[in-house]
Amino acid sequence: MHITNVECFPLKITPDQAYLGGKADGNGPDYYYRPEYRCVYSRKMETCLVKITSSDGHVGWGEALAPVVPQVAAELIKQLFAPLLIGESPFSSGVLNARMYDSMRDRGHISGYHIDAIAGVDIALWDLKGKILGLPVHQLLGGAFRKSVPCYVSGLPEPDIDSRCRLAKQWQEKGFHAVKLALGYGVREDVKNIRAIRETLGDEAQIFIDAHWNYSVAEARDLAAQLHALGVGFLEAPLLPEDIAGHRELRAKSAVAIALGETERTRYQFKAAIEQRAADILQPDVGRTGISELMHIASLAETWNLRVAPHLSVGLGPCIAASIHAAAAIPNLFMLEYQPPVFTLANQLLKQPLICERGEYQLPQGAGLGIEIDEDRVRDVVMEAAC
């Protein structure tokens, strides 16, 4: 049995609402910059799906997280990885991952789109192996430590405090008792938001904050002190991601757990933060790491008594399903992220929906990732650069 075909589907979908709030329509360009986050975003929902077919007709689906220009990941897979994969056994995934990583390693491509593309292939290979064997991915990873995966509602993408509070209360009434706010608007404004959410949800709710890399060490220390008084569970991305020493200094002085890792792709990149004790909670994203590397990162974190809260932003069906399987198989899991608008959109491309209810993801049933892609719908939204 061997791999016979590798296909990519870079997608650009118009959602009802742009990621983290704002209008998705308009006559302007798809890409725009959010000055508060110094980052480029798309008004569309963009990603790159990967389909790998074996000689016996089994199919595995993966996804490379690609919130902008997903055709880049697709082209890398088409030009660089497909020749390495075709003719090989899908059960040689460890060898194939190493070959893909080594293919551009000595040229310095040890992060970014190259690794995202590997992640998409890796997820597809896990799905394919599970389909061939008739086993779910979490069983292939060694079994599930939990039958369902706890999650927190992420973002609360509303324009003002009052509407964020109303949305948080709506989720609490649906059984979701953990929320994360996307803030980073200044210490005073962030504390004002968190205080309002705490008063709305009560003392039992778990509240987290994503500061989007917007603070200095001194500012973040001040923020953490005030957040601790409000019972905040973790402060995510307080400083620039390159500032490992700053995170270490902050963690040593903060009574609130420090979370980071969405920008990193490999165990080698996480190693610096782990060894310098710069974080309490690590947040690898399966659409950037793949399942194999995420499990390596979680194992490394476990040796340092750290917990893992996988990051999950704009990834669609394969990313979400892969995250759930990996989270179920991680002994040191903290919690998994839940993005309701993205989740709804992801289910529109699946024949049977993924389920997240009352603060928990249900573990997908069936072989592989336990999902079935609606390929007709996927082809309706694929970009012209499909390979």
Automatic annotation (TrEMBL):
GO terms for molecular function: hydro-lyase activity; magnesium ion binding. Residues 161-257 form the Mandelate racemase/muconate lactonizing enzyme C-terminal domain. GO terms for biological process: amino acid catabolic process; carbohydrate catabolic process. The keyword Kinase does not apply. InterPro entries: Enolase-like_C_sf (IPR036849), Enolase-like_N (IPR029017), Enolase_C-like (IPR029065), Mandel_Rmase/mucon_lact_enz_CS (IPR018110), Mandelate_racemase_C (IPR013342), Mandelate_racemase_N_dom (IPR013341), RHMD-like (IPR046945). Keywords: Magnesium, Metal-binding. This is Enolase. Its cofactor is Mg(2+). The lineage of its organism: Bacteria, Pseudomonadati, Pseudomonadota, Gammaproteobacteria, Enterobacterales. SMART domains: MR_MLE.
